[in-house]
From TrEMBL:
InterPro entries: HAD-like_sf, HAD-SF_hydro_IA, HAD-SF_hydro_IA_YjjG/PynA, HAD_2, HAD_sf, PGP-like_dom2, Pyrimidine_5'-ntase_YjjG. This is Noncanonical pyrimidine nucleotidase, YjjG family. Gene3D superfamilies: HAD superfamily/HAD-like, Putative phosphatase, domain 2. Pfam families: HAD_2. Transmembrane segments: none annotated. NCBIfam families: HAD-SF-IA-v1, YjjG_YfnB. GO terms for molecular function: 5'-nucleotidase activity.
């Protein structure tokens, strides 16, 4: 078995449970901004539409097609107009309220802390994320993840986004190691798995939903629960 010395994690959808935290936030905003008054949709429909729109926009952002500002400006506009509201009915400040509230949510995936406690004495632990710097810092702090990690690399600070291999190379330079000493763990086949592979780093594809997908080429490892990392490491 290869002897790794450093483990690199993605943050959202891998450790920090983005979907659970986002859903809680969206339900709160539905009440806070009194969206029921329009009689167009309920809280669950609001979340489902937001999730669909946000995922599409993040895909465009990761591919360099839109900016951070465009992503933030568009997601509630597209969500609410898609649910039947006129642009004049979109509440002022709803995007800002989401950005303020969501990062304070603390749900993480099962076994997150158990696995981090197991890994920390043995490996240097680090984060590479395409998320925005100020938001990721709040998430890491409020969910008590910060103490486990040495380097936290955001695409915003680095200047490159996953899957660009330069963000991985930048991280390797920061840590002071070669690719064969590292293992990348993430949920996104393109950003995390293919990106790490291009940089010569072994990968663990974290697939908690057990999504059926063709893994070509196959990642080094494929897991459905973070607890499975103990059998790999």
């Amino acid at each position: 078995m290869k002897q790794y010395t450093h483990i690199i994690f993605d943050l959202d959808h891998t450790l920090w449970d983005f979907e659970k935290n986002s859903e809680e936030t969206i339900h709160t905003l539905y009440e806070q901004f009194e969206l029921a008054q329009y009689g167009k949709f309920d809280s669950d429909s609001f979340y489902k539409k937001y999730k669909f729109v946000n995922n599409r926009l993040w895909d465009e952002y990761n591919k360099g097609k839109i900016s951070q500002k465009e992503l933030r400006n568009a997601r509630f506009l597209k969500t609410l107009t898609g649910l039947g509201l006129g642009t004049h009915q979109i509440p002022a400040g709803i995007s800002e309220a989401y950005i303020e509230l969501c990062p304070t949510k603390t749900a993480v995936f099962p076994f997150t802390f158990e696995v981090l406690d197991y890994l920390q004495p043995k490996y240097g632990l680090h984060i590479i994320t395409n998320g925005f710097k100020e938001v990721q810092h709040i998430k890491m702090t409020t969910s008590k993840l910060n103490p486990y990690f040495k380097e936290i690399v955001t695409s915003e600070c680095c200047g490159y986004k996953k899957p660009d291999k330069r963000i991985f190379e930048h991280t390797l330079d920061l840590i002071g190691v070669t690719p064969d000493q590292c293992l990348m763990i993430g949920d996104n086949l393109d950003c995390d798995i293919n990106g790490a592979r291009e940089a010569g780093i072994d990968q663990v594809y974290f697939n908690p939903e057990k999504t059926a997908t063709k893994l070509r080429p196959k990642p080094t490892h494929h897991i459905h629960c973070l607890s499975e990392l103990k059998s790999i490491l």
